[in-house]
Amino acid sequence: MKCIICNTKTKLFEDNELKKIFYHCPLCKLIFLDKKFYVSSTNEKNQYDQHNNSLENEGYVKMFDEYLDYTLTDLHVKSVLDFGSGPTPVLAELLKRKALHVEHFDKYYQPIKVYENKKYDLITSTEVFEHLENPKEILNMLAQHLNPNGTISLMTLFHTNNEEDFLKWWYRRDPTHIVFFTPRCIEIMAKECGLKVLKHDNKRIILLAKI
Questions:
Q1: Which of 52, 94, 137, 165 has the highest count of CB atoms within 10 angstroms of its CB?
Q2: What are phi and psi of 117, to 5 degrees?
Q3: Which of 124, 140, 138 lies closest to 193 in space, CA to CA?
């Protein structure tokens, strides 16, 4: 199986607990699930419907506050697109409270492509890329909607590039999580999309800008 990011031949490994097959790229370090284990769109949405993601969820809001503190430092932002906003657009609301012009998109909950023919200073995409069958294609599309000095900020938990650790990792248990990144993987993917890494926290947040 070729890597969906860099087209390198990958190594297959089995998750005996979940009865699934994953592939691990030796070059960009991507880990991704075999397609035959993907859930249907209906089951995917049902999984999202169960999330308790609201402004009343203090832990959820605190996570986004920390994310925004890291993302917005040293940036000059007026317009924002939140790509993959989920059932309740909490992040979009927190951004609006900072007096920013914010639009949001979600394929299930806000499917109107508000970003068409528009460009933004900042595009946020939190807990989205691990669900994507075609992450490079989506990142390239988002790059086309950046203003010249714009930034893309992604949030997705990074794996340690160790298969034993991965097979104990809670993050892989979500049946809608199909792609797992490291900062290096995102750097390689970004370069192919005309982007460069500005910074990352080595845990879950990475910022990209046009080259």
A1: 94
A2: 65, 25
A3: 140
For residue 165, the tally of other CB atoms under 10 A from its CB is 10
Residue at 32 is within a domain:
yes
Cα separation, 98 vs 113, whole angstroms: 23
Residue 117: which domain range? 11-210
Query: pLDDT for 46-86, tens place per residue?
Result: 988 876 677 768 888 899 999 999 999 999 999 999 999 98
Task: Report the SS3 class of residue 146.
Answer: strand
* Helix segments in the chain, DSSP class H: 41-49, 58-72, 90-96, 135-143, 163-166, 183-192
The residues near 84 (Cβ < 8 Å, ≥ 6 apart) are 105, 106, 107, 125, 126, 127, 128, 131
| 6 in any annotated domain | no
What's the domain count of the chain?
1
Token output for 186: 């995102």
- What lies within 8 Å, CB to CB, of 27 at 6+ separation is 3, 6, 8, 188
Residue 4 lies in a domain: no
CATH number at residue 60: 3.40.50.150
Q: Share the mean pLDDT of the chain.
A: 95
Give me the percent of the chain exceeding a pLDDT of 70.
98
Residue 82 lies in a domain: yes
Ranges of residues in the chain with a pLDDT under 70 are 51-52, 56
